[in-house]
Design goal:
27 helices; four-stranded antiparallel beta sheet; five-stranded antiparallel beta sheet; alpha+beta; 847 residues; single chain
């Protein structure tokens, strides 16, 4: 638990990497994931660094891989398994990989372009075939029907004998334009022809039954074949411009029947040939893509690793001889041996004559925070880090959150049935946690549930426990051991009679009568309370007092944990000037409230319960410092309350000015002459005094500063006014927070009450209706009722109420618990590790 209780001890180290082996050493460090690199060239532009050309080469390979992946996806070729984890390729092999990718890209580009051209030709020939098939009867059909009202020469209607030869003798030239247009555009196209050409055209069109592919979008669309007859070249030019505006596909119209027949036969032959060529092209393209798909994931990982290595190399600086790269890294002290081993392995692989090595250096900078986790503790650590990354080497709340978080959640959510459902769901996720389909999904909501599967499992287990304590299972009580209350004794003592049963709807069990109350229920609340009319009053009193007790214990535990920080950072003065006043203020007031609650539970029996005084009245009178007409809770109560109140009030000025005055004395009054651990007083400015000052500074927590600084420099570092203001804010926040935070824990009672009442309402409004049907169709009616009950239980009580209880438990840990000892002002350790690189194509937008 040591590494989880406190962050790992870190150190700043220098890596001396030989130019020939730097790439391999960084690769080994990336595989190990042990160090965090610092940028030694912050003033150098990214485009002016040494390895910028290598990074551009990696980006070019990424572009080619993106093209390959899109083509593979377009061809619907499955990608291979992603279990491979190849090492970063050697620099001498990079150019070979680059050339291979470029050749593959050029080949695929050429084949793809040829395929697109063939498809375009096939599409045009198919459209031409449809156009000839549809328009072959246009002229004959037009001659059989009446001419349109906008025909070129209306006077031709008077002379039916006039034909094409007659119009030629009149000097008019008859022309035809045919093609295809999209179905939605045909009406606007017809109106435009009429308005522009003044009726000197004849438009005939017919819709094609088949769907044709749109060349722009690639989607199947409905098209219309049209044939335009016109007289005069000027009109023909206008018609062609209109066709271009509407993106019509124009095709030549045969002048005779024989020519049409020859063209149709030629088109059929060419279409058949194109189908054959396209089929072979598709086969060849699929073979190339299938071969590329076998290596594309390996190339993807290798390029990612190469790019990451060169990015790290750009963070390093060159020595004066330009033969060695120098890097600065943060590294856990316990992993320095592994770092040295990684550098030796990199030097061995590169065949360097001079080895690379690591050298630990002192630093005044605050190290990053590293807390090692596993799949069980990572979820709880993420809850803590969401509040703030812990300061370096301060106490980590995550190990305690493993227990307290699901427990406080269960106090608000306590239900045996709901807890079992939640635990079963989490157990299923835990059992199949290695399933790829569950891990590699793009649904963020599911990923959130899956990453927190162990949190959900513990929340479900603790909810089962609190459900047993509350004796609540889907709003019903379980009578496992038999109730400790008996109504038979009331009749035997002649307190109740048959007349009382007939005259009264509700009767009161008197525990003072022998045999009525046999003893407490072995586990949890007695099931008879589920039948009592004052059940809600009893549970409210029980859960409210329980919430206050849990809150005081939880906050006191947080205050006690601050001792670990004070001792570790060698701030012993904080034990007497911060920790002790805080603990006294908390326990002299609210700890005394807990004592009164427990004392009243133990001191008053059922026969004395009516004479028991009110705790709330006594607690209020304690602050008002006045007597009460109510009898005391115990002998000597007034004197003890006065003493506790005085101690609590006196702890406030100690907490307010104690630490600032101590620091002021330390810098002024206590610096010249003082005793330290039995040494005699020495003259100010002597070497021995300076040595004692350093030791005392280490003890008081200033070990991160410059221990050889002068006293005047330390005065500049510590401003008395700032310290006093900071301590005043802390005192006000703590004293007021003790009241507000204690009241905040009442949410445990409120949420538990709300969950129980919602569960009961859902049972009464849904399930009870199905169970009350006593006809033969009752079983059939119960099936949909149970389905509705299950859906509402999962959606409202498990999901919505569970999320509500989760958020409230989160707030209790962040605000009420962690602020007693946890600052959360650290910087998270971000190691250079290949395992943190994206391993999904979708993550980088390749697909």
């Amino acid at each position: 638990m040591g590494s989880s209780f406190r962050s790992e001890e870190m150190c700043l180290a220098q890596l001396f990497l030989q130019s020939g082996s730097a790439y391999d050493c960084i690769s080994e460090l990336g595989e190990a994931g042990l160090v965090e690199f610092r940028d030694l060239n912050p003033s150098v532009n990214c485009f002016q660094r040494k390895f910028v050309n290598e990074i551009k080469r990696c980006e070019e390979m990424e572009r080619i891989l993106g093209f390959l992946l899109r083509e593979i996806k377009k061809a619907d070729i499955p990608l291979p398994d992603r279990d491979v984890n190849p090492v970063a390729p050697l620099p001498k092999h990079v150019m070979a990989t680059m050339e291979q990718l470029q050749r593959l890209e050029a080949e695929l580009s050429e084949v793809t372009k040829n395929k697109e051209k063939l498809q375009k030709n096939l599409r045009e020939l198919t459209e031409y075939t449809h156009m000839l098939r549809v328009t072959k009867n246009f002229v004959q059909r037009n001659s059989e029907h009446e001419p349109r009202q906008y025909e070129e020469f209306p006077f031709l209607e008077k002379d039916a004998a006039l034909d094409y030869t007659s119009m030629q003798r009149m000097g008019a030239k008859l022309g035809f334009i045919s093609g295809l247009i999209q179905r939605p555009k045909i009406e606007a196209f017809e109106r435009m022809l009429w308005r522009v050409c003044k009726g000197y055209t004849i438009l005939s069109y017919s819709e094609i039954d088949e769907y044709l592919e749109d060349p722009d979008t690639g989607e199947p669309t409905k098209s219309v074949v049209f044939l335009i007859s016109y007289w005069g070249e000027l009109i023909g030019q206008k018609v062609k411009k209109i066709c271009d505006c509407y993106h019509c596909h124009l095709y030549p119209y045969p002048s005779s029947r024989d020519e049409r027949t020859d063209v149709v036969e030629g088109l059929g032959t060419r279409i058949q040939d194109l189908h054959t060529v396209l089929l072979r092209t598709d086969d060849y393209l699929r073979q190339v893509l299938k071969k590329a798909s076998e290596s594309v994931y390996m190339w993807f990982i290798q390029v990612k690793k190469m790019k990451a290595i060169y990015y790290i190399l750009n963070l390093c600086s060159l020595d004066v001889t330009n033969k060695c790269l120098i890097a600065e890294v943060w590294c856990p002290v316990g992993d320095l041996g592994a770092v040295r081993q990684a550098l030796e392995e990199g030097s061995r692989k590169s065949g360097a004559t001079l080895p690379s090595f690591v050298n630990r250096i002192p630093s005044n900078d605050t190290p990053p925070t590293l807390i090692k986790t596993n799949k069980f503790t990572s979820g709880f650590q993420n809850i803590v880090d969401a509040y703030g990354v812990g300061a370096y080497r301060e106490v980590n709340p995550a190990p305690f959150t493993v227990i307290t978080f699901p427990f406080l959640f269960a106090v608000m959510f306590g239900d045996l049935g709901h807890g079992i459902i939640m635990a079963l769901f989490a157990s299923w996720m835990v059992l199949y946690e290695n399933n790829r389909k569950l891990k590699n999904t793009r649904n963020e909501i599911w990923n959130t549930f899956f990453e927190g599967r162990y949190i959900i499992l513990l929340m479900g287990v603790f909810s089962i426990y609190t459900g047993l304590i509350y004796n609540d299972c889907f709003s019903k009580s379980l009578n496992l051991f038999g109730s400790g209350w008996s109504a038979k004794a009331m009749f035997e003592a002649h307190v109740w009679t048959d007349a009382d049963l007939a005259a009264n709807r509700f009767l009161i069990l008197d525990p003072n009568i022998t045999g009525v109350f046999k003893g407490p229920y072995p586990l949890g609340i007695d099931p008879i309370w589920n039948l009592a009319t004052n059940r809600l009053t009893f549970l409210n009193s029980y859960k409210m007092k329980m919430s206050v007790i849990l809150g005081i214990v939880h906050m006191s535990f947080g205050i006690v944990l601050s001792v670990c920080n004070h001792l570790h950072f060698r701030k012993k003065s904080n034990l007497y000037l911060v920790f002790l006043p805080e603990l006294l203020f908390m326990w002299c007031l609210f700890g005394y409230l807990v004592f009164m609650v427990v004392y009243k539970w133990l001191a008053f029996s059922a026969s004395e319960s009516r004479a028991a005084p009110s705790i709330l009245i006594h607690f209020i009178n304690m602050f008002l410092m006045q007597g009460s007409t109510a009898p005391p809770l115990y002998p000597g109560q007034a004197g003890l309350q006065g003493f506790l109140l005085a101690v609590a009030l006196l702890s406030v000025p100690v907490l307010l000015v104690g630490k600032p005055l101590y620091l002021y004395w330390l810098l002024n009054g206590g610096q010249g002459f003082r005793m330290y651990r039995g040494y005699e007083r020495v003259r100010r400015g002597s070497e021995e005094e300076l040595s004692l000052m350093r030791s005392h500074d280490m003890e008081e927590g200033s070990s991160h500063g410059d221990l050889s600084a002068s006293r005047e420099h330390k005065k500049d570092q510590i401003n008395f006014a700032d310290e006093f203001l900071h301590q005043a804010i802390h005192t006000i926040e703590y004293c007021l927070g003790c009241v507000s935070n204690t009241a905040s824990y009442l949410r445990l009672w409120a949420l538990s009450l709300a969950h129980a009442q919602l569960s009961e309402v859902l049972w009464r409004m849904v399930m009870r209706l199905g169970l009350r049907v006593d006809t033969s169709l009752g079983v059939l009616f119960l099936v949909p009722v149970f389905g509705l009950f299950a859906v509402l239980t999962v959606s409202i009580l498990l999901v919505m109420e569970g999320l509500s209880a989760f958020l409230h438990a989160l707030r209790l840990h962040w605000v009420e618990f962690q602020n007693k000892f946890y600052s959360g002002t650290g910087i998270k350790f971000s190691p250079f590790s290949f395992s943190l690189l994206p391993s999904s194509f979708d993550h980088d937008g390749f697909l």
